[in-house]
Amino acid sequence: MTSEEILKALIQIPSVVGQPNAAIAGWIAQYLGNLGIEAQLLPGPEGDRANLFATIGPRDIPGLVLSGHMDVVPAQEPQWRADPFRLRTEGDKLFGRGTSDMKGFLAAALAIVPSLIALKPARPIHLAFSYDEEAGCRGVPHLLAALPSLCALPAAAVIGEPSGLRPILAHKGKAAARVEVQGRSGHSSRPDLGLNAIHAMGRVIAAAGEAASKLSDGPLDPVFEPPCSTLQIGKIRGGEALNIIPESCIVEIEARAIAGASPAALLEPVREALEGLRAEGFGTNWQPIAGYPALSLPADAPIARLMARITGEAPLAAVSYGTEAGLYQAAGIDAIICGPGDIARAHKPDEYVTRAELVACVDMLERLCAQFAQETP
């Protein structure tokens, strides 16, 4: 199958984040099985979702991982001009949810499998496809934990997020949490008999604002935009009616940390403010909802030098969005980002990748794998 034919099949499977993914994982496993490659389906703790791992070549030698996620964000925006889960072509553009982020890369990686089989690589090429990346990289930690039973620790990983096929060396880490304050309801005419959860949450929000404002003082890393770590509250919900003392208030907060800073540690002042409410009779709950470490790959790392030669592009120092690459690096695997499409098209109506980008990705991956296989382990 060509990369476009594979992409068409993948787009037709609405593998929305947070949903069971047996359909897409099963399709990929069958595609590989038809080529004589056994795919390992690695169920996550949810029970209805699985990562997928496959190897072309020997398993006992450090290899190269081609990494991508099988899930996509929902496609409920009314601005879609056609069914987002049917590949639509207009000239050179291929429209559909996930074409850029990131089924285009999956299709290209799967399309080169026959070439990899014929190559008989002395150093293995691994396919590692995860679930629920769009929910904060929830699936890939389970895949990484299983690696010792699957293969020798890989030497490097290419994470195929949309980058215009330009290698990327770094991104910020992230931690996110859902924060809840429980008070006591009552009539608004007797606030003395209740506990106003929104008022109490106001102090947590103030602590978040103060912590956020201090981050601009540093530490700083000029490769990022902005060059400092950041913190923000992005959602808030609370209250039933104007004349009812609000019993509950919930906010969702995130921190994005430059390399060397702990995303979770950036949230600690907010957590401390929340815990301080208990002394006044409020109930509190802190629930982590997402997290991944920063990526910081040296420009002289072997995979960075190889990707620069293969793509003809000097690696980009950093991007503002996050990926699974930081988790690969934390597991001891040099990771770099490079994939077809444009992140600016992702998560939007009429998301697309071009045929030229897809073909160029296939060519890049074939040359990359052939070169990697020839190098001395």
Structural overview:
This protein is an alpha+beta fold and 377 residues long. The protein has two domains: 249 residues, Zn peptidases (Aminopeptidase); 120 residues, Alpha-Beta Plaits (2-Layer Sandwich), CATH 3.30.70. Helix content is 31%, strand content 23%. The chain is built from eleven helices and 17 strands. The chain has a six-stranded mixed sheet, with helices on both faces. Strand 1 and strand 2 form a beta hairpin. The radius of gyration is 23 Å and the shape is globular.
> Please, what is the average pLDDT?
96
The helix content is: 25-40%
Question: Gyration radius, to the nearest Å?
Answer: 23 Å
Largest sheet: 6 strands, mixed
CATH class of the largest domain: Alpha Beta
Number of helices: 11
Please give the structural blueprint.
Blueprint (H helix, E strand, L loop, with lengths): L2 H9 L10 H13 L4 E5 L6 E7 L7 E6 L18 E3 L2 E3 L3 H13 L1 H7 L5 E6 L9 H7 L9 E4 L10 E2 L1 E10 L3 E2 L9 H19 L14 E9 L5 E2 L2 E10 L5 H4 L1 H8 L7 E10 L2 E2 L5 H10 L13 H6 L3 E4 L14 E3 H20 L3
Parallel strand pairs: 3-6, 3-7, 7-16
Antiparallel strand pairs: 1-2, 2-6, 4-5, 5-17, 8-15, 9-13, 9-14, 10-12, 11-13
Helix pairs in contact: 1-3, 3-11, 6-8, 9-11
What attributes characterize this protein structure?
377 residues, alpha+beta, Aminopeptidase, Alpha-Beta Plaits, 2 domains, six-stranded mixed beta sheet, four-stranded antiparallel beta sheet, 11 helices
Brief description of this entry?
The protein is an alpha+beta fold and 377 residues long. The chain has helices at residues 3-11, 22-34, 99-111, 113-119, 140-146, 197-215, 263-266, 268-275, 302-311, 325-330, 355-374; strands spanning 39-43, 50-56, 64-69, 88-90, 93-95, 125-130, 156-159, 170-171, 173-182, 186-187, 230-238, 244-245, 248-257, 283-292, 295-296, 334-337, 352-354. The chain has two domains: 3-170 and 294-374, Aminopeptidase (3-Layer(aba) Sandwich), CATH 3.40.630; 173-292, Alpha-Beta Plaits (2-Layer Sandwich).
